[in-house]
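Quick one:
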Amino acid sequence: MATADAVLVIGAGIIGLSTAYAITRAAPGTRVTVLEKELHPAQHQTGRNSGVIHSGIYYRPGSLKARYAVQGAAEMVKFCAEHDIPHEVTGKLIVATEREELPRLHSLVQRGRENGIPVRELVPSQIADHEPHVRGIAAIHVGTTGVCDFRAVTETLARLAQDAGADLRYGRQVRAITQRGNEVVVSTADEEFRAKVLVNCAGLHCDRVARLAGLRPAMRIVPFRGEFYELAPSAADLVRGLVYPVPDPAFPFLGVHLTRGVDGAVHIGPNAVPALAREGYGWRTVSPRDLVQTAAFPGTWRIARRHWRYEVDEIRRSLSKHAFTRAVQRLLPDVRPEDLIPAASGVRAQAVLRDGTLADDFLFAGSGPYVHVLNAPSPAATASLPIGREVARRALAALTAA
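Output:
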């Protein structure tokens, strides 16, 4: 068995690799190992999203999401430019299509300004200047939103961390975590890894890793699948940039939106339906273990009772392309069902509390030799650089105290 590492990071998504990168920058020479159960980085949340660099306009002023998204968006653009990663600052429209949405739109204007984000209010003729095929009665333009290739960002973070001495081990699924004296011992199928500090960035499985480490978190990851379509090439000119609906504060997701990515393809989605497995990227992927654990958690039933009407609509759009198209037509009237081509879906690792509320901010936990990242859904990719520094700070503080 090798000499103990100083810090062992579980998970090679964008948060885990940002953390490893931040540790090597803050404390050069620190022995860092990253364990990843997949054969490549960024295989789940990081590599299965719309690629949007979020501005931070949606998030409660003063929250970690607001602070880190605003800071992270600027840093992400700079990082992409420095490392020749495809990206573009496009700005985006948030469009009201019904009068009852206007108060919520105005609230977003105020929230954006409180978060230090440049926001411009638009009348219908100005909407057409930005997006000729989009229809709405009012909108706001958020200039700091953009798009990038988060998979390429993660691969770059991996390379930079390795260049600084970090050891990345792929195909290593964690089976057990124990403490022996002042060391943490992590067991995979055929190896043991020892470290002074363990950092849990396991995303969809972060609560399970926390329990393996002896923590009993008052949350559970309840997976929600987000399904996407892509506009057919013949219809791609219907969308120039990024277009979002006004979010409903009673429902914890942003709604179906239109995103022209760095590759020029226009993605439409996601919806939000219960996934039947933590890595359930389609209805046919079912994990009895995941279903039993989700069903046994009281928060699952409480959130279902609270939001069942919304979920019925989301499932209807999942099962019916025509229903999905009708949702899109609220923003983009000219789109037709035949214009939509199924695209890869993603699963959101959403932390749900026992009372059925969704954790609405990034969530960190742990004491002694453990640092756990227990809630890091969107906008975590945007905010990954400041999140990585915060997790690295906690890990290095634990290392000093060890």
